[in-house]
């Protein structure tokens, strides 16, 4: 039973009691694992193009985009805390009295710390940290090697110093050039000018947390004029936050609704699947999705952008054919040959698995069935060869109704205690870099309601610790996992060079991040 106070809290979040009851039931029933049938591979779910084909689709997009509304959608919500995990361990565990740092590294097996300390001069924020440390410590040059390194890391991370881990990842210095440093946020603008633009106007949308909203707007104010001068483009930039109405509740381990000590219900952000609501608000013909930390230095932007344009060209050609067939399906006198042609298009180009009873259907039922498969949002997803990175990959998946389709599946969605499922997971040849181009309009030019194409059973249930209490938290189906489950999906192999995320601070030492 919910008290009157509970109901007010629920309603103030833009939620209903029925929705909260459904969340409680979902957590109690436990997480539904994906049922993998097999890994998607080149020739069986993943398209691999020849150079001439790549160039064809790049040219196609370049020719068409002057008449299109194009935008780049960048999830940029998170703080950078996890980037510095091994450095926090160092601060928590190492004391000057422990002596030689090399011995500490060997004993603690903190190999990342060793790399960091040996190459920290190459980090884009090195000068800023050193300058700030000198301001704070008058005798910095007289310190021992161990003391210098310890103070350097403290200056980076202490809350009363630079406090980098509080920053959103997008606003940290990522790249160092001869005269300046740039953030990941800034690099997205330079990159967007190559492909997320039409007639010298580029559109970008960033999802940010409310606490960082002003920081992003201030950064935009500082950099916008210079970027527009350098690129010759005008930028339309918008921001949004995860909506309160996408928050979810949590249960105790005894399956009771968790409340804070003051008696209020704990509402939690529900993971990046909540951003489907933000994506659904965008009214554009073509939407590129790319994570905030997956950027490169300027000299590599043009090469990286080729593959974004290639994916968009594939999307436009598929969409054009799908729209043509959808108009034809409205004609009740459409002949059997044309129905077979549309069926072949769905199988060969959109990876559809046609129901085995299709041939026994009436002509009208065939038309309706084919229309239901065609008239959906389309996503074309770049896939890179698997190099052991953690995260999701492309698989053929069977849903609860026995339907098989292509899906991006996170490892957390797989029951690794099932030997067969674990074997399929390990057989994956490709990895999801979150390099997605979306077509979200129907053949009448009207925007799809993207919430109708979600597999709500693909939610995540995770164990968290809140204020010292273990809780079971609910996350909405991931934006490119369950939230796009019922889209038409095409996977295309792209080079590993297009995937350059910064998961730890040491990733900034990779060649893609060194000018």
Written overview of the protein:
With 515 residues, the chain is of the alpha/beta class. It folds into two domains: 336 residues, Spore Coat Polysaccharide Biosynthesis Protein SpsA, Chain A (Alpha-Beta Complex), CATH 3.90.550; 86 residues, no CATH class. 36% of the residues lie in helices and 18% in strands. The strands form four sheets. Strands 2, 3, 4, 7, 8, 9, 11, 12, 15, 16 and 19 form an eleven-stranded mixed beta sheet that branches. Strand 17 and strand 18 form a beta hairpin. Helix 9 crosses helix 10. The longest helix is centred in the middle third of the chain and has 29 residues. The model has no long low-confidence stretch (mean pLDDT 95).
What ranges have pLDDT less than 50 throughout 5 or more consecutive residues? Answer: none
* Spatial gap, N to C terminus: 60 Å
Task: Give the name of the CATH architecture of the largest domain.
Answer: Alpha-Beta Complex
Count of the domains: 2
DSSP helix fraction: 25-40%
Mean pLDDT: 95
Structural class: alpha/beta
**Total number of beta strands:** 19
How many DSSP H or I helices?
15
Shape, per Cα inertia axes:
globular
Supply Rg. Answer: 25 Å
CATH topology-level fold name of the largest domain: Spore Coat Polysaccharide Biosynthesis Protein SpsA, Chain A
Biggest sheet details: 11 strands, mixed
Strand percentage: 15-25%
* CATH class division of the largest domain: Alpha Beta
Helix-strand layout with pairing:
Layout: H1 4-12, H2 17-29, E1 35-39, E2 41-42, E3 45-47, H3 51-64, E4 70-75, H4 85-93, H5 101-108, H6 111-119, H7 126-136, H8 145-157, E5 173-176, E6 181-183, H9 184-195, E7 197-198, E8 201-207, H10 213-231, E9 234-240, E10 250-252, H11 276-280, E11 286-290, H12 301-329, H13 336-349, H14 363-374, E12 378-385, E13 393-398, E14 404-409, H15 419-426, E15 430-431, E16 435-439, E17 460-466, E18 469-475, E19 488-493
Parallel strand pairs: 2-3, 3-19, 4-8, 4-11, 8-9, 12-19
Antiparallel strand pairs: 1-13, 5-6, 7-8, 10-18, 11-16, 12-15, 12-16, 13-14, 17-18
Helix pairs in contact: 3-12, 7-8, 9-10, 9-12, 12-13, 12-14, 13-14
């Amino acid at each position: 039973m919910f008290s009157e106070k509970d109901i007010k809290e629920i309603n103030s979040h833009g939620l209903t009691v029925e929705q909260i009851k459904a969340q409680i039931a979902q957590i109690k029933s436990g997480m539904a694992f994906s049922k993998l049938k097999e890994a998607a591979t080149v020739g069986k779910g993943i398209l691999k193009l020849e150079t001439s084909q790549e160039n064809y689709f790049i040219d196609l997009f370049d020719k068409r985009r002057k008449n299109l509304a194009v935008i780049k959608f960048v999830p940029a919500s998170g703080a950078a805390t996890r980037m510095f995990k091994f450095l926090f361990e160092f601060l928590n565990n190492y004391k000057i009295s422990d002596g030689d740092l090399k011995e500490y590294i060997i004993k603690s097996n903190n190999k990342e710390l060793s790399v960091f300390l040996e190459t920290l001069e190459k980090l884009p924020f090195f000068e800023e940290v050193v300058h700030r440390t000198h301001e704070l410590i008058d005798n910095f040059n007289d310190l021992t090697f161990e003391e210098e390194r310890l103070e350097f890391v403290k200056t980076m991370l202490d809350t009363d110093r630079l406090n980098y881990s509080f920053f959103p990842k997008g606003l940290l210095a990522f790249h160092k050039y001869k005269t300046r440093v740039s953030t990941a946020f800034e690099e997205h603008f330079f990159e967007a000018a190559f492909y997320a633009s039409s007639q010298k106007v580029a559109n970008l949308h960033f999802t940010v947390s409310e606490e960082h909203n002003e920081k992003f707007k201030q950064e935009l104010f500082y950099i916008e004029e210079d970027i527009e001068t350098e690129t010759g483009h005008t930028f339309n930039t918008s921001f949004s936050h995860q909506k309160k109405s996408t928050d979810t509740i949590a249960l105790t381990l005894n399956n009771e609704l968790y409340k804070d000590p003051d008696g209020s219900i704990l509402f939690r952000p529900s993971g990046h699947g909540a951003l489907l609501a933000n994506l659904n608000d965008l009214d554009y013909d073509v939407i590129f999705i790319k994570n905030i930390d997956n950027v490169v230095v300027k000299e590599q932007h043009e090469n990286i952008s080729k593959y974004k344009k290639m994916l968009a060209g594939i999307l436009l050609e598929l969409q054009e054919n799908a729209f043509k067939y959808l108009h034809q399906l409205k004609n009740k006198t459409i002949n059997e040959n044309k129905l077979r042609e549309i069926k072949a298009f769905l199988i060969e180009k959109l990876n559809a698995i046609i129901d085995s009873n299709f041939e026994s259907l009436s002509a009208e039922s065939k038309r309706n069935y084919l229309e239901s498969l065609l008239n959906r949002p389309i996503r074309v997803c770049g896939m890179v060869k698997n190099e052991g990175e953690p995260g999701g990959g492309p698989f053929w998946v069977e849903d609860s109704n026995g339907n098989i389709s292509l899906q991006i599946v996170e490892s957390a969605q797989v029951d690794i205690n099932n030997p067969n499922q674990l074997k399929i997971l390990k057989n994956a040849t490709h990895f999801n870099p979150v390099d997605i181009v979306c077509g979200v309009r129907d053949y009448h030019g009207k925007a799809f309601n993207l919430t109708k194409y979600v597999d709500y059973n693909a939610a995540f249930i995770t164990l968290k610790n809140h204020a010292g209490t273990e809780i079971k938290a609910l996350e909405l189906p991931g934006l490119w996992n369950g939230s796009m489950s019922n889209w038409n999906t095409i996977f295309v192999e792209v080079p590993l060079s297009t995937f350059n995320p910064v998961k730890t601070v040491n990733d900034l030492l990779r060649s893609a991040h060194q000018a």
